[in-house]
Design brief:
homodimer, elongated, 5-stranded parallel sheet, alpha/beta, 5-stranded mixed sheet, 246 residues
Chain lengths: 246, 246
Amino acid sequence: MNVVGDRAAKPGSVHLVGIGPGAPDLLTVRAVRVIQSADTLFVPRSERSDESLARRAIAPYVSHQEVIEHVYPMTPDQKRADASWGAVAEQVLGRYERGLRVAQVTLGDPLIYSTSYYLFSALRRLLPPEAIHIVPGVSAFQAAGARVQRMLTIQQDRLLLMPATDLEAVAAAFERCETLVLYKAGRVLEPLRTLLAKRGLLERSAAVLYAEQEGREVLVEDWSRSSLPAGYMTTVIVSVGRRPWA
Amino acid sequence: MNVVGDRAAKPGSVHLVGIGPGAPDLLTVRAVRVIQSADTLFVPRSERSDESLARRAIAPYVSHQEVIEHVYPMTPDQKRADASWGAVAEQVLGRYERGLRVAQVTLGDPLIYSTSYYLFSALRRLLPPEAIHIVPGVSAFQAAGARVQRMLTIQQDRLLLMPATDLEAVAAAFERCETLVLYKAGRVLEPLRTLLAKRGLLERSAAVLYAEQEGREVLVEDWSRSSLPAGYMTTVIVSVGRRPWA
């Protein structure tokens, strides 16, 4: 059988793969299988980082695949983002049309504050939906909560995830959920700490930096007892209070 | 070497393991390893169900382990829940003290609307924190979103998870997040549909029943175009609207 010819006759496939928070054993079995059977892997690297954290997480599963590191913009500039991800989408499309199996890997879950959003937005204009497959993954907040043993939500509780950057929105959120997860807290550590202390929530706040990333992880189970180093990947979990049993 | 004697000298360990939404390949590599190396597996089964969905999801990874199916109460009665889970905690403790490796498996993620909450609450009074290990898992809402290709959140967006059962709280939530995930929607399908239609959100709502559970999954990409069968494990994703780029 002519494998190359056979391949060209079949349509390719595109997979947006959540690889979890960073530990190689927190990929799902499906993510491992998709990565191992891919012809090409697109691996994101932030323009602010020397190294792709995603690449480190998948290293045990990479052997023969073509690996393309894509340096993506970190500024909230839609035009720049569209141009950057549009170019990746074109590369993906070219390989798809040649019948190849292409995977983009992304830290965490593809649906939650992920680079896959941008690639998906570009790809959905180029490909039929059935050509695209999304593999869910463990998000950073889940890994963070597990590491500090902080249960998030049961019964009638509401769980709210948001970036910590807008502190007015954070203050409003205390009234609107039982558990609050704040991303990107590293940029606003001091004012956030002050706000939490003022509301009596500091001792109900845990923080995790670089959850499940070997050699970088920092765990703070009670923010009122420990100071917190600054870091881009800082997740703060505030147990605001639990709704009573129905 | 006397394996039994050696075992008894070492402390045991307890693992609360998220196994994802139901597909055996959506367990993480770590979850598979912990399950395969466990001496005893505690597997929850709802008193309303003939079969443990969790047991089906882990079936490929079970061989020699002792498997204890725990039928748990489904009423929001704290005393009954405490009694039921307290009894499981005693069984876990007995095995831990004999140096065994014990895992409780739970669908989804242990921190999010999970049976592990109740067992953890009982165990933390009996065991030192370092004896307990939490393995995060893919939650149903992540699997649901992936199946209907619904990106949840980027940039400054807020993502709110809550049960659909209190419709007043649901109506208030529309003003407070960019994406709303509603669990347990099966009980309130008709009034929820009416509420979403009134707010112009029905065509922005996707629904998934039994995400990634073989033979049971139902996907509704746009609720304004399809009716929705009732089912206990129904997740509705409402894309309320996205915050503008900063």
